[in-house]
């Protein structure tokens, strides 16, 4: 949806660019929240808004780790907690703990 809005109202995606959600919220497809940018800018948007990590509590983290250990798929876990599968993947590789808990101790 976001890409279609940009292509319709702003123009074609430049090479090497992708759709940015300026507030870091990928569900906010308001045209004033969208622009073309590179991957680094997109990651910076998410980091500044903390949307990538802010939804997961420590209790959820432990439960997700337990479900991963028990063999549940990342997609199933993401759906259960209403979070993006990329967050479950980061929890699975301990990247989540290094980035989130190191910052929020």
Folded structure, characterized:
This protein has a two-stranded antiparallel sheet. It has six helices and two strands. The chain has two domains: 2-49, no CATH class; 58-103. The N and C termini lie far apart (37 Å). With 105 residues, it is mainly alpha-helical. It has helices at 2-9, 39-49, 58-69, 74-81, 85-92, 95-103, and strands at residues 18-21, 34-37.
Rg for CA atoms: 16 Å
| Helical percentage | 40-55%
Low-pLDDT residue spans: none
How is the largest sheet built, in terms of strand order?
1-2
Shape: elongated
Structural class: mainly alpha
Average of pLDDT? 82
What count of domains describes the coordinates? 2
N- to C-terminal separation?
Answer: 37 Å
Strand content: 5-15%
> What is the chain-wise order of helices and strands?
HEEHHHHH
Please provide the count of β strands.
2
Count of individual helical segments: 6
Largest sheet: 2 strands, antiparallel
Describe this protein with a few key phrases.
105 residues, 2 domains, two-stranded antiparallel ribbon, 6 helices
Detail the topology: elements first, then pairings.
Elements: H1 2-9, E1 18-21, E2 34-37, H2 39-49, H3 58-69, H4 74-81, H5 85-92, H6 95-103
Antiparallel strand pairs: 1-2
